[in-house]
Amino acid sequence: MAVVNIHLRRLPVPVSAVGALVDSLADEDDALWPVHCWPAMRFDRPLEAGAVGGHGPVRYTVEHYVPGRWVRFRFTGPRGFEGFHEFTVHPTSDGTDLIHLLAMNARGRARLTWPLAYRWMHDALLEDCLDRAEHALTGSVSHPARWTRRVRLLRWIAERTMDRTSNHLGAPGQ
Asked: What is the pTM of this model?
C-alpha cells in the first residue's frame, strides 16, 4: 500500500529561522520536536547523514542532511515501513514553508497498523511539531492542534503496552 502524507506550515519568518529549528532536531535544545508530549527523537550521534535512531517504536537512519534546509530519514522499523520521512524548508514570498513528507510502501502487517494506528498518531505528532515551530518563531499558534478521541485512545493503549522507560509517550494532553 502506497502512503504519501504531507504536513505544511507557512511561517512569516526567514528561511534561516526555520532552518535553525530543523537543525536542532534531537539535540539537547531541540526546538522543533514536541518532546513534552511525544517520545523524543534520539540518535547515536549528532544530526548528520548516517546517524541511527528514531522516536518511540519508529526507527530510522539519517539518509541526507543539508543544514538549514533538509533532512531525510530512511525507515528501518517497524517492519513493513519501507520508505522515508523528511523535513524541508522552502522560501515563499511572505516567509517560509516548513514541510514534513512521509512517503512509504506499507507491507505485510504495516498494511493494517499504518491505517489503524500509526497514521493517526503520526498526524497528531506532526501537527504538534508544527505548532511548536510556529510558537517558537512567532510567540503564538494561530490554530492549535487538538488530539482526537482516537488519538487519545491509541496513546492510552500504547502507554500500557510499551516499555515505559524507553518509549514513554509523555504527559496526557490536549
From this structure: 0.91
* Bond prior to 78 in cis (omega within 30° of 0): yes
Question: Residues 70-123: pLDDT tens digits?
Answer: 999 999 999 999 999 999 999 999 999 999 999 999 999 999 999 999 999 999
Q: What is the DSSP secondary structure assignment for residue 174, as one 8-state letter?
A: -
If we measure between CA atoms, which residue out of 120, 76, 72, 81 comes closest to residue 100? 72
Across the chain, mean pLDDT equals 93
Confirm whether 45 is domain-assigned: yes
85: CATH: 3.30.530.20
Q: How many domains does the chain fold into?
A: 1
User: Is 80 a member of any domain?
Assistant: yes
The sign of the torsion formed by the CA atoms of 147, 129, 82, 53 equals negative
Q: Among all chains, which residue has been given the C-alpha cell 524507553?
A: 166
Boundaries of domain holding 13: 2-167
* Strand ranges for the chain from DSSP E: 2-11, 42-43, 52-55, 58-66, 70-77, 81-92, 95-106
Within 10 angstroms of residue 49's Cβ, the number of other Cβ atoms is: 12
Give domain status of residue 147, yes or no: yes
